[in-house]
Amino acid sequence: EVQLVESGGGLVQTGGSLRLSCAASGFSFDGYGVGWFRQAPGKEREGVSCISGYDGSSYYAESVKGRFTISRDNAKNTLYLQMNSLKPEDTAEYFCAVSATEWSGQRLCIPAGGLYGMDYWGQGTLVTVSS
To answer: Cβ–Cβ contacts within 10 Å for residue 13, how many?
Structure first.
């Protein structure tokens, strides 16, 4: 059974840091496109950062560039998101997801027709940034 389990969310003050983890099981992580997405209350889900399993390209949403860093450890089947200089507008439920499709990092993170082409999703971890 494929499972993605996020951890590392919590409450942090503005300017603080958090490191999210996504542990994958039931399949081999290597070669899959991976990404972090978030959804704030009343807003649509958005792609935060993605890495292609096809060409290794990465993508960051403009709002997180220079503050967030995505990384993966294929040996541990784990995806990470280091979040620095957090802002109240980063408050959201954060989800990890994987895709077997050979897309670029940008294509993984940007929906087509309102849909993301990810095959599996985690349950999410809540990040709250207080002002």
So the answer is: 10
